Amino acid sequence: MEQIGFGGGCHWCTEGVFQSLLGVENVQQGWISSLGEYSEYSEAVIVSFNEEVIALEELIKIHLFLFYIFF
Q1: What pTM value is reported for the model?
Q2: How does pLDDT run across 8-46, given as a tens digit for each residue?
Q3: Which among 2, 8, 10, 13 is annotated as catalytic?
Q4: Which of 9, 12, 27, 39 sits 20 to 30 Å CA-CA off 19?
């Protein structure tokens, strides 16, 4: 099982989208930050997924699309 965190948007809005995808096993909502100069927290989801069913690249595309349409 792989995990990735997606921040920068409303976690309530994105949680349901990621939960509906085949290959996504779990979605946790909360807050996330990066390290270094840009370490402020933002709303986020942590997506646990099976890379044999859904590729990381597809999850990234979906995240960027959601960010584009919501903001």
Answers
A1: 0.85
A2: 767 777 888 999 999 999 999 988 888 888 788 888 999
A3: 10
A4: 39
